[in-house]
Here is the input.
Amino acid sequence: MLVLGVESSCDETGVALVEVSESHRSALPALRAHALHSQIEMHQAYGGVVPELASRDHIRRVLPLTQTVLQQAHCTLDEVDVVAFTQGPGLAGALLVGAGVACALAAALGKPALGVHHLEGHLLSPFLSSDPPQFPFVALLVSGGHTQLMRVDGVGAYALLGETIDDAAGEAFDKCAKLLGLPYPGGARLAQLAQQGDQLVFKLPRPLLHSGDLDFSFSGLKTAVLTQVRKIEMAGVLSEQHKADMAAATQAAIVEVLVKKSLAAVQVCGVQRLVVAGGVGANRQLRLQLNAAGATRGLRMHYPEVEFCTDNGAMIALAAAMRLQAGVASASMDYAFNVKPRWPLHEATSASLALSAVTQSPGAQLG
Ligand code: KG4
Ligand code: ZN
Here is the structure.
């Protein structure tokens, strides 16, 4: 079975083709080809994503990318069995482009279509890696729009353990990066700059570190960075070394909270595996510190390949294929589509599996 996946929830157009083996139906789907166009350069002039420009660019890119993928995989459109797309969450206009194109393609081919939750794509993306996880595990989802800890018992069996009450971790990286004069999206650049800095020069808060639950809060961090930057600017000039030191301090604060809460979640759930996914999962310091902490506790850490940390079509095609394989979703020949710009992941959870996940979960409170 060949599943074509289309991702268009924000500022990346991604298309991919995965194959589910007919002879080994329980084997993980194999990635046949994928292609991506990032709009980052286009949005950089505005300091953030401009939704209307994003939608228009998705329209321009999605079909050429589909052709590239089919060529790379030596396939024709007729051979595609299911057309999957990101149904939400994300920018409404951007989602509509992917959903519209995917459903039109499916209708033209007489094949079924399947909408997928963007975060489920991130969550399952480590299954594309050379070291895929096994269920159950705790997933730390850290992207530009979300920061969540989930207990994952199987495909579609997701129980929310904790989440950010304000800014997402990626958002905190991006906002602090902006305060240091780095272009959008600043996460990776801030991490790069941090390599030249000393994290001990500036003291930044570790919000909710000792809150006793698995929630996060990052909005205070940008205020703390802003206050310290203003203080230096009032007294003189914010030097390159100041910026590097502040970048290091910011990264250290975010990473420390993410690491501590992830380890607490693993302990609460009594599982041995942690999966880290989403754009911030590409952060080297986060991986290094999780690996070090995991090694001393006998935990296995799983990450997507760096190219599949940020948005891509491969994770959408994969999530669709895995949902179909697990029997928790069925693709539809009803091509009347809708999109869900706001869509909590636990609402996309399969009802019966969700119940078992929640009853098996000892709860998020650490007491
Ligand atoms: O998952 P993603 O591509 O988009 C959403 O679904 O939101 O994540 C993008 C986020 C951005 O905030 C970006 O700055 C951050 O991931 N990011 C990083 C790194 N690479 C991307 N943050 C910290 N360190 C990185 N190396
Ligand atoms: Zn994403």
